[in-house]
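Lecture 7, part 2: worked example. A protein chain together with glutamine.
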Amino acid sequence: MATIKDLLQQASTQLETTTDSARLDAELILCHTLKKERSFLHTWPQQELDQNQQATFNTLLARRLEGEPVAHILGERGFWSLNLKVSADTLIPRPDTEKLVELALSVIPQDKPWQILDLGTGSGAIALSIAIERPHCHITATDRSASALEIARQNAALNHITNISFSESDWFSELEDQTFDMIVSNPPYIKESDPHLEQGDVRFEPVTALVSGKDGLDDIRRIIQQSPAHLKENGIILIEHGYDQAAAVCALLKESGFHSVEDFKDDGGNPRVAMAYHV
Ligand code: GLN
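Predicted complex, written out as structure tokens:
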């Protein structure tokens, strides 16, 4: 039977044409097969797999070689301090979105019971990260997709998070006249003609979580226009956007009467999150 070291070597070489994270992908699939942390692979490179483990690894590797995202093969993805269940019904949480969480936490007081709204929560990544860091706050997490909300609910339960409620809502449609101290959202924002939609992991994600009209801004426009009616005095909006949409999003915010509009870069150096204050 092959050793951990040899198997990783072979799998990485095979994966090189599928992904630019070949070695990492091979390691994550092997960790999942062995039910071990990544440090185990580095500590015990000469350990051999048994027959069952080898068969499982081969099956999972074959799926990755077909292009299926690692997060779908493993059924989970790490985000912030949480391990989140993911499925084909939600966007796979991305590290870029941790910037939005970091900014939100930088302005939410530690001890005040803020009411926070997460629009289009998907797997619940943003809502749950804020909820766990600010136990005095209450988060309302919405999604138009009932199956996405089901995943988010399961993630709350798996991570023992209770200061959150879920609502099936098309942006603000079911929120009536509720108002919040903060609105956060990572809405779809990719242009419908973007060639990246034909490549890599996004091919396996729900198009409704990715694409938003000709210029990618249809949903962001709706959210920004409707937000003032749902924010308390001096309430804050934080919205994720595409790397080339900062100027457009900041202009929309100003048009809707927001002040102190500011844009922030993600850790990859791309403009990613706009933040602004309601009057
Ligand atoms: N950031 C994602 C991507 O570029 C898109 C997610 C989104 O539209 N909110 O693949």
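Residues 77 and 84 are 5 Å apart (CA to CA). Residues 91, 94, 96, 186, 188-190, 202, 210 surround glutamine (CB under 6 Å). Keep this in mind for problem set question 3.
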